[in-house]
Amino acid sequence: MSNKTDNMKKNMDKRGQLKIQQMSFMLMAVFLFFIIVGLFYVVINMVQLKHSVTALERERIVGMTAKVSALPELNFQGKINAIDADKAMIMTSVKNRDKYKDFFGINGMIIRKVDGKSKEIECRSSNYPDCNIIKLFTRENISMTPSSTVFVALCRKQANGDRVYDKCEIARLAISISEDKA
């Protein structure tokens, strides 16, 4: 009889150990499932964060462009998103450009006429207004990617015989923003 009870005890011990193993495997599976779900959540949030950063940077550039084009130093007769080409040309020849650069809070600015000409001619006092690129406060080239440019009106006074009129053209304004002014 003791043999029979010993076998019964061994069978119950084996079943108990099997149940404990099943429970531990189940706990590990649930734990791994939650880890994988957590990783997916983190990856999705990182992608959304990257899109948010890109959108905020774009809004910051558009806001800075609107701010710069509205300043009296560059604005054309109080019109919205209109830059005075004559004032911009004067700013290119100002001796203390670095003071203005700090005032505007930008690293550089390029105004490029959208005129369909394939040849790019940088504006200087000798070739103005027969040019299509005005560079302000910059020595290096600013990338003209669609995310960093905004369309503005580039206007100037034009004489036609005895009559003076406003001549406005479409231009792309690219701004490189100073990181410390953000």
**Rg, Cα atoms, Å:** 34 Å
Report the span from N to C terminus: 87 Å
How can the largest sheet be summarized? Answer: 5 strands, mixed
Percent helix among the residues?
40-55%
Q: Given the structure, what is the number of helices?
A: 3
Number of strands: 5
Basic shape: rod-shaped
Domain count: the total is: 1
Q: Helix and strand string, N-terminal first?
A: HEHHEEEE
Give the low-confidence spans. none
- Which structural class matches the secondary elements? alpha+beta
Share of β-strand residues? 15-25%
Structure, explained:
The chain is an alpha+beta fold and 182 residues long. The protein has one domain (1-182). The protein is 47% helix and 23% strand. It is built from 3 helices and 5 strands. It has a 5-stranded mixed beta sheet with strand order 1-4-5-2-3. The chain starts with a helix and ends in a 5-residue tail after the last strand.
